[in-house]
Specification:
Blueprint (H helix, E strand, L loop, with lengths): L14 E3 L4 E3 L4 E5 L10 H9 L4 E7 L11 E6 L3 E2 L2 E2 L13 E7 L2 E6 L4 E6 L4 E4 L4 E6 L5 E6 L8 H7 L3 E6 L2 E6 L5
Antiparallel strand pairs: 1-2, 3-4, 4-5, 5-13, 6-7, 8-11, 8-13, 9-10, 9-12, 14-15
The chain binds 6-O-phosphono-alpha-D-mannopyranose and zinc ion (ZN).
Length: about 190
């Protein structure tokens, strides 16, 4: 259970600032550094080196106060910074919903990709401001910054969905997004070149 007020929440007016990447009123703010990305990047030597060289922030997640509770509909803004680790573009850890539920992402600024994997098939959606990426139930999802500016998107998801990170560590994501001369290149998950 979350630390928030008893259910149901009262109606709420929430202001989205796409430039600042904030939702007001604010809920929890999560900061994920390189050291929080265990098992995510293929090149573990580059991953260790990045931790030693300042442990940079890879992405942040700013949430509204709507709690992750059954029947609620939480929202968050994720900001993924530009960069790569051993050529693999900065990305979220990625997760599967233990309670198979859909989710939508809306691109706010920068350019990115929404990588989905159902255990057999992978699917990539190019994301930009104004693009909605729909994640159907049963598809694990990871977001990637493919540009030179921060990539930022709004997520809206059922509060009962949950986050299973081990699923991604066990099953992978089907493909990896690598830096390429003309932006990015998707390669098989087992390969990093
Ligand atoms: C989006 C939503 C959140 C998620 C966040 C970061 O904002 O899907 O539920 O937490 O992205 O992704 P991850 O949890 O995989 O690090
Ligand atoms: Zn999700």
């Amino acid at each position: 259970m979350s630390a928030f007020a008893s259910l149901p929440l009262d109606p709420l007016r929430i202001v989205l600032d796409a430039g600042a990447g904030t939702l007001t009123p604010e809920g929890p703010l999560l900061t994920r550094r390189m050291s929080d990305m265990t098992g995510a990047f293929a090149d573990t030597a580059a991953w260790r080196q990045a931790q030693a060289a300042g442990d940079p922030v890879v992405y942040t997640v700013a949430s509204s106060p709507v709690p992750e509770e059954n029947r609620e509909l939480p929202q968050s803004i994720t900001t993924i910074y530009p960069g790569d680790c051993g050529g693999e573009l900065y990305m979220t850890k990625g997760h599967q919903h233990p309670d198979a539920q859909g989710e939508i992402y809306l691109g706010l600024s920068g350019v990115g990709g929404l990588l989905m994997f159902d255990g057999e098939r992978s699917h990539w959606i190019d994301m930009a401001p104004g693009v909605i990426g729909y994640i159907p139930p049963g598809w694990a999802h990871r977001s990637v910054n493919v540009g030179a500016e921060p990539y930022r998107f709004l997520a809206v998801y059922p509060g009962c969905a949950g986050h299973d990170y081990d699923w991604v560590l066990r099953n992978g994501m089907g493909r990896r997004a690598m830096r390429a001369a003309d932006g990015y290149e998707l390669v098989p998950f087992g390969s990093s070149s």
